[in-house]
Specification:
single chain; binds calcium ion; binds 2-deoxy-6-O-sulfo-2-(sulfoamino)-alpha-D-glucopyranose; four-stranded antiparallel sheet; 2 domains; globular; Alkaline Phosphatase, subunit A; alpha/beta; Arylsulfatase, C-terminal domain
């Protein structure tokens, strides 16, 4: 008979053997070298002024702690610009790495040609699982891109009870668009993807796009916050004809009912002018009751006060910014949930996380909402990228980058070749802290959507680290020149100032160089022809006039 000591020893040896093999077995199942994943989060119209990693006074009163986690873990781009400050064109440029005159998408209402090369399609060909959830807005469906999964908002998307479209058709879903977009993204990550493959997920929110309807839990979030009024809120547009001709002024053009949620009289919940009543009428009775209760007192106070025009303009500014920031609160919460999910599932180390917006936005500068102009607030867009171990935490760069650069950057970071005809540059050297020589020192911009919403004239231009030159054309012919160091508010048009002649000539040459480099055809001075769906932007006569 064996001694009990011997039996105990035998059991111990067996246990050690079993445990070590169990561990080995687990290790064998895990892939040896994993390709990185990509989570590309984008908001619609999110101004850097309202993202606290950028330290603007507005964002100090309405911080975005979760979005800031990406900046804390990675790199913040301080000179990140779009090539055309409008939703559809910006998205088409991000997908292709090409300007609108090359990818065929220059203004809203066109349909993106999904048969052309795009980074999600290239990733899928390399074995990635690809998905897009939320706002798409460059066609009814992502035709031709061949996502493994897509669940997108119809057209511009609705804040409340939005319509989502999938390959199986469309469905109106009770809930709040930002929350649903986050829910569906997390559901795909957890339940719908093939977990043996690397993934690329696009989470594209509608918020804080017009008409800025916050979630019910956020409607009163900033009701007692007084936001700083921009110095240029009462701009007179001296020497800037195109700026004077726009229709995007908070106190003149915002719809008092639809945008500013103002009621007709004390004690009434009826809205003033509401051009698209469906945004409110689609709410359930319970949602609407809670909504009305949240706005009633503030509206009653406004209707009781005997405001002067100036006081009313200032009241409207506060209402606009309060709602704008309150819609961002839900985006911030959603980003937090996604970051938490990635952390809890050990995905953070191997996932590149990007946060950006399809363009910048005016928060009262020059009196405006919306974007489109080549002025700083709409030209600049937030960009934060984290990739632990590869990108230094809490870093920032002032290199001039554009939405044009995202496609080559994603391909480069994920180890794919960058096609020769891509017009953007990979940001990888900047992100990985290499000494970057010969980086671009100026950027090119071109806005086409005129005649169109908000009446912003067609224009193109160039910006370098200090100066900006813009030419407004079509039914106007005006050049503008700004010294951003001396005039960051862009209110002094120096085009006729003889002391700047040398700089203006230099910038005109630079503009011409960029137009040739990017194969921009000469600009045509066509008159007042309406933009129509599907119609190509008329291209361009004999020679560049600059
Ligand atoms: C809608 C908005 C406009 C906005 C465009 C483009 N009006 O038409 O104010 O400029 O979208 O925005 S709305 O009251 O119908 O929302 S973009 O984000 O698609 O470029
Ligand atoms: Ca937009």
């Amino acid at each position: 008979m064996k001694s009990p000591m011997f039996i105990k020893l035998l059991i111990a040896v067996c246990l050690v053997f079993l445990l070590s093999n169990f561990k080995k077995g687990k290790e064998e199942k895990a892939p040896t070298k994993q390709q990185p994943n990509l989570v590309f989060i984008m908001a619609d119209d999110h101004a850097y002024q309202a993202l606290s990693a950028y330290n603007h006074p507005i964002s100090k009163l309405a911080p975005t702690p979760n979005i800031d986690r990406i900046a804390n873990a990675g790199m913040r781009f301080d000179n990140s610009f779009v090539s055309n400050s409008l939703c559809g064109p910006s998205r088409a440029t991000m997908l292709t790495g090409k300007f609108g005159h090359i990818n065929g998408f220059s203004y809203n209402g066109q349909t993106f040609d999904g048969s052309q090369p795009t980074w999600p399609k290239m990733l899928k060909e390399e074995g990635y699982q690809t998905a897009v959830v939320g706002k798409w807005h460059i066609g009814h469906t992502p035709e031709g891109i061949d996502f493994d999964f897509w669940k997108i908002l119809n057209d511009q998307g609705e804040y409340y009870n939005p319509e989502f479209i999938t390959k199986d058709g469309s469905e109106t879903i009770e809930g709040y668009a930002t929350d649903l977009t986050t829910d569906y993204s997390l559901d795909w990550l957890e339940n719908k993807r093939d977990k043996n493959k690397p993934f690329a997920l696009m989470i594209h929110h509608k918020a804080p796009h017009r008409n800025q309807m916050p979630a019910l839990r956020h409607t009163q979030m900033y009701e007692n916050t007084e936001f700083p009024v921009p110095e240029t809120y009462f701009d007179n547009y001296d020497d800037r004809k195109a700026a004077g001709a726009q229709k995007m002024n908070i106190y003149k053009d915002m719809y008092e009912g639809h945008d500013l949620k103002m009621t007709v009289a004390v004690g009434s919940d009826s809205l003033r002018y509401d051009r698209w009543p469906n945004h409110f009428e689609r709410m359930t009775q319970e949602q609407r009751t809670e909504w009305n209760a949240a706005y009633r007192k503030r509206n009653d106070d406004m209707n009781t006060a005997n405001f002067s025009d100036k006081e009313m303009a200032l009241w409207k500014y506060q209402r606009y910014v309060q709602d704008y920031c309150a819609t961002i609160a839900s985006v911030d919460e959603g980003v937090g949930r996604v970051l938490d999910y990635l952390e809890e599932n050990n995905l953070t180390e191997n996932t590149i996380i990007v946060y950006t917006s399809d363009q910048g936005f005016f928060i009262g500068e020059h009196g405006w909402f919306d974007k489109r102009f080549m002025y700083e607030q709409s030209l600049r867009t937030p960009l934060l990228i984290q990739y632990p171990g590869k990108i230094k935490a809490n870093s920032s760069t002032d290199k001039m980058v554009q939405n044009l650069d995202l496609a080559p950057t994603f391909l480069d970071l994920l180890g794919l070749d960058i096609p020769e005809d891509i017009q953007g540059e990979s940001l990888k050297p900047i992100l990985t802290g290499k000494k970057v020589k010969d980086w671009r020192e100026s950027i090119y911009y071109h806005y086409y959507e005129y005649p169109g919403f908000h009446s912003v004239k067609r224009h193109y231009g160039v910006r370098d680290s200090r100066y900006k030159l813009i030419h407004f054309y079509n039914n106007i012919d005006q050049w503008e020149f700004y010294d951003l160091e001396k005039d960051p508010n862009e209110v002094a048009n120096l085009i006729g100032d003889a002391t700047y002649k040398g700089e203006i000539d230099r910038m005109k040459k630079e503009l011409n160089r960029l137009m040739v480099k990017y194969e921009e055809p000469p600009v045509v001075e066509w008159k007042d022809e309406p933009l129509r769906k599907g119609r190509k932007v008329p291209n361009m006569v004999s020679e560049n006039k600059h």
